[in-house]
Description:
- The structure holds two protein chains of two kinds.
- By secondary structure, chain A is α/β, with parallel strands linked by helices.
- Chain A has two domains: 3-225, 3-Layer(aba) Sandwich (Rossmann fold); 226-263, no CATH class.
- Chain A has helices spanning 43-50, 73-79, 95-100, 115-127, 143-157, 173-185, 197-203, 221-224, 227-234, 258-262, and strands at residues 3-14, 17-28, 32-36, 58-63, 66-67, 80-83, 161-165, 189-193, 206-211, 214-220, 238-241, 250-253.
- In chain A, the strands form three sheets. In chain A, strands 6-7-8-3-9-10 form a six-stranded mixed sheet, with helices on both faces. A four-stranded antiparallel sheet of chain A has the order 2-1-4-5, with helices on one face. In chain A, strands 11-12 form a two-stranded antiparallel ribbon.
- In chain A, α4 (115-127) crosses α5 (143-157) and α5 runs parallel beside α6.
- Chain B is an all-alpha fold.
- Chain B has a domain at 73-254: ABC transporter involved in vitamin B12 uptake, BtuC (Orthogonal Bundle), CATH 1.10.3470.
- The longest helix of chain B is centred in the N-terminal third of the chain and has 36 residues, at 47-82.
- The radius of gyration of chain B is 20 Å and the shape is globular.
- Chain B starts with 5 loop residues before the first helix and ends with a helix.
- Classes of the chains: A alpha/beta, B mainly alpha.
- The interface between A and B is medium-sized, with 31 and 25 residues.
Amino acid sequence: xxxxxxxxxxxxxxxxxxxxxxxxxxxxxxxxxxxxxxxxxxxxxxxxxxxxxxxxxxxxxxxxxxxxxxxxxxxxxxxxxxxxxxxxxxxxxxxxxxxxxxxxxxxxxxxxxxxxxxxxxxxxxxxxxxxxxxxxxxxxxxxxxxxxxxxxxxxxxxxxxxxxxxxxxxxxxxxxxxxxxxxxxxxxxxxxxxxxxxxxxxxxxxxxxxxxxxxxxxxxxxxxxxxxxxxxxxxxxxxxxxxxxxxxxxxxxxxxxxxxxxx
Amino acid sequence: xxxxxxxxxxxxxxxxxxxxxxxxxxxxxxxxxxxxxxxxxxxxxxxxxxxxxxxxxxxxxxxxxxxxxxxxxxxxxxxxxxxxxxxxxxxxxxxxxxxxxxxxxxxxxxxxxxxxxxxxxxxxxxxxxxxxxxxxxxxxxxxxxxxxxxxxxxxxxxxxxxxxxxxxxxxxxxxxxxxxxxxxxxxxxxxxxxxxxxxxxxxxxxxxxxxxxxxxxxxxxxxxxxxxxxxxxxxxxxxxxxxxxxxxxxxxxxxxxxxxxxxxxxxxxxxxxxxxxxxxxxxxxxxxxxxxxxxxxxxxxxxxxxxxxxxxxxxxxxxxxxxxxxxxx
Lengths: 263, 329
């Protein structure tokens, strides 16, 4: 399988702090990579390197075997869509207007919005279940609806690669699964930062496990997500409980024994 | 009636037409509709009326329209660029700069009109240059820097012009102060020929970049992932809106609140995205300033009220009403 995105010994230093240290990994076409790790592990920074918002201090970030910095911004935007934690704009756009912003990298100067564009909009709104909310201002959407609106924008952007920063943040359990099922169905190459390890285990093909800017493990989800490894990285005893109806075991962290704490 | 209904636009255009006709007739020399039609279409039957309409009233109305349209478009652009509903063309020290230029010109060339306009333009450009320099030094990423730099430059330049005026002869000081309050009484076709193309070019440029500008309504990083060169576009439009405002201020003096108030209204009536916002701001801003000028020349007998006095008065009432409407209950 061809590597879409590659990191070669990438280090990132912001001010005095080393955020990422010698990170290497690759994202293959059509697979979902989950980036997991404790707070401050460098998950979001890694994502920002991948979409060219931050430049690596050392090492190389490659997109289709070319350095990410050699792409023009608009060229990159036609191939890669990003869903991040965005605040609601001061001048509230409607859902439809925001989703249509996905056209920005595809349009020049005075290009009008065509009927094909509107068909694409329609399709994106259908897929994300936002048809009825299309003319509602963004400020009136719930967290889950807003997140889906950003995914709809990425669909209109028509990119083959989708990067998501904590798409399930602030969502209830139902929406967490709904969002991840949705992005799984898209058949895109996806990199997704996730806090919840069980979600990562159920929806990601590969896992990059980061801790304090270093790669702890990288590989297929079932190989990376083991009890010993997670206990070591998250410094909390961990159990993998097999479940009769689920393909993957349930990850459970539990309270440390009292004696152990007094050591 | 939906925000995208063509009826709203037709209504606005009809308002403009009515405004135009009514404003030409307004003034001490009474002109009938028949005479007006004749004057606008054919050879002049009455040379006095011909001169009044073509040399005095029409350039003044045209100037009012383009100045109002320009200020409203600049306001709309700056508000969207800074994601701050209180941004305004005058926030970047433009009026203070123009005031300083005018003060210097009044003292060096006390009787002439042209150096005053040029000097005011130079002063406004100086203000923008200072703001841009501060911004480049402290980074474009922070919108706060842009706004604070504008306020700081504004106060510095007005302090200098106050200092100059304090030592100038009282008559010159009076003239500068009156000039700063805004007036269209000096309008001529030359002024219109400077302001109108500048406003139209800015409008065209903004429409060409309308999608990028809309993308910047979200935050900068999000706009960059859509392929928008955020810093470059912000600098480009800061410079262009400043130039257009400087042209307007040099011709008409300071007219406050138009750039702040009109985009607020237009967002309610036509929408928040660039296409309706810009076209709506141009139309409504133009119509608004024509009426303000009509008031300015007809409220008091024998005397004109400075435009800035009327716009500030209307502006403050407008914002008080806005506050009242936003209060819960």
